[in-house]
Amino acid sequence: MIGREAVHPGPVAALWQRVRGADALHANANALIVSTAVTSVAGLAFWALAARWLPADSVGIGTALVSVLTLLANLATLGLRNGMVRFLPEAGASTRRVIMTSCLSCALAALALSAVFLVGQPLWAGRLAFLRDDAVAVAAFAGSTVVWVLFVLQDHVLIGLRKSVWVPVKNLAYSLGKIAALPLVATLSAWAVLGATVLPAVLAVVGVGVLVMALTRDGGAPREHRPPMSVGQLVRFAAADQIAWLVWVATPHVLTLIVLHVKGPEASAYYYMANMIGYSLYLVTSNIGSALIAESAHDPVRAASHARTALAHSVRLVFPLAIVGVLVGPFALRIMGEDYAAHASVAMQLIILSALPQTIVGISVNTARVRREMSTVVVTYVFLAATIWGGSWITLQWWGVTGVGATILVAQSAAALGLVLTGRTGLISGAPTADSVWAAVASLSLAARRSRSRRDQRRLLHPVLEACAVPDAVETRTLGSDSDSLVTAVSGQAGDFVLKIATTTAADRNLARHAETVGELHLLCDAAVTELVPIVVDRVTVDGRTVVRETLLPGKTPTTDPGPVAAAAITRLHTRTARSVLVTSELAEQWIDLPAAAVAGLDVGDRHRAAVDRIASYLRDGLIGRTITVSWTHGDYWPGNVLVSGEPPHRAVTGIIDWEDAMDPGLPDADLVHWYLSTRTSDLGAAVCAVLDDPGQVERYFAAAGVVLPNPQLDPSLVVLLAWLWHVAHTRSRSTRSGPGRIWTARSVHPVSRRFAGAAPSMSGGPSARHP
């Protein structure tokens, strides 16, 4: 089963590709991570130089001013940071208006907040009285707040426009400008740090403003098949997101006060340093989550796929960093003093480990933002705040600062578990159900296998290209595969083609079967069929494994059911190879008995053999002795093996790939029913059971599509069971390394076998319901 996946350049650009990412989501996420790293390093350099070049009192006043500026600007964003990321991808022609209105609203909010601060300055910042010395000072502070809120908001505008690659460029230029400005403003005394912070930001705001105007010159992306964006939706989203942000930001700050109250100032310092190091890993998922929102809002059909990609990317980055942090962190704390290493190390290690479940939390709340389920976002952050505050108050008294770290780890784990159990991770499309838990876990397992396949592909591709006499300086695309074959599209001087590389004996067998089948089809069928079937150009052996080189068909795998065109495409094959046969015991052995034996062997101890035997008996009773139409069949006809071009309603099938499960004679109805089952939102087992409960749903689906099943006299329950049996048997034989696991078996096999656990099957109709 093949589906298009990531894009990889040739070896010359490999290093750049690893940094940039395989697709838009990776590229934008990595750009934001780089931006965070650049900002952090440059920030440390700035403060180190400030400490050397400026008097201590100027630095102290400067840090307070920057803290106030940051607080007011963040409040003045009015929740529109994520609002820009969420709504700009679908704003269409109103993109510029949304950006300008949002920036104006935030600027006015910044002015209002700066006025409130200045009025109350004697109450909460007595040392900053110089801010009200004269009109120039007031204007400078208010203007700085406006500049800074626009500076903050512009990052999110670029993310929402899916141009995150400009964010690290902007922040690097700003950071260098800030350092360069420091000696120029050193004579400004108390205003020096603020001047060095704001003046380069003015240039950045102007520069990015010009860039944004250029990027939105022709409006945003068209909003085909989407309802118009509502200002009310944006306002409600921003209001809820601002509440969630305030809770999130308040959580560590309030916790610092709790530690101070319960254990004193030393413990508070220990916690602060431990959290500062541990929290840095949270920023990885936060950056990836921002890119996820933009990509999912731009392409909502693939939102679940984007979520799985984002989570896999987060785990790949956070997991090794967490291991390094746990091992190296205590030594880093010694730089601050032995007391910190002695009292904060375990807490820091626990907070670092909490970044692992936080990958699920971070991706989940961002997928909730995509779905506009802001209640999930707010409830998650409120739960974390309440759990961390309440739990830390108790554990501080037992274990000190270590108890705080343990509480944070438990809280993040509990939040992640709750989001998974309620199906609100966004990893699976459709409404949350109990099946969402298993489906999400299965999708992560699939992502891990595909990651392994990409590593194997990078290792094996060069010798395979040599064996096929193909120049190595080519562009390659890794194509997803659920079998033990590595599949790569190759473009270069030798033309465009696909390489399929076997990695196991099962893959050798399947590739040989695939090559033989497509060869037969090209000899047997006319152009109406063969134009959809790849041509095997070469078949070689590399290190004892089979490699097949075949033509690259146009089109891409669909993300939604393309409708009647898919049924019509496979029907061409069925029609041109159709004939009538009598189902004999020999044919029943091929169709039923051998697949049933493979399915029964999936469970240790053959726990479900009796149920599978009943299914086989049911199928034999319904088929043996009947005259039916048979033909060549694909055997695994689902969207991942179909290529399409065009957009609805003008889609066309341009290719059908992966023919290793093809059968002649086969039951053509099984191909069509398999397509129906694979396009349901539920797992295979649940989809089959739904048809057994209501066999008419299959007939209604194909009637609506204008498709007539080749054997309308057969009961849909019988056909769906046969299609299920073949699919499960093929899935087991297709792979020995990436074969069906226990979760897949539990979701795809057990629901069906349980219906046949008793003496009589639990289903509507029967095998003879339509017997002539």
Automatic annotation (TrEMBL):
One of its GO terms (cellular component) is plasma membrane. It is found in: Cell membrane. It is a multi-pass membrane protein. Pfam families: APH (PF01636), Polysacc_synt (PF01943). SUPFAM superfamilies: Protein kinase-like (PK-like). Signal peptide: none annotated. It comes from the Bacteria. Keywords: Cell membrane, Membrane, Transmembrane, Transmembrane helix. InterPro entries: Aminoglycoside_PTrfase, Kinase-like_dom_sf, Poly_Biosynth_Transport, Polysacc_synth. Residues 477-685 form the Aminoglycoside phosphotransferase domain. The chain crosses the membrane at residues 27-49, 61-80, 101-123, 135-153, 173-192, 198-216, 237-260, 272-294, 315-336, 342-365, 377-396. The keyword Manganese does not apply. PANTHER family: O-ANTIGEN TRANSPORTER-RELATED, PST FAMILY PREDICTED COLANIC ACID TRANSPORTER. This is Aminoglycoside phosphotransferase domain-containing protein. It comes from Dietzia lutea.
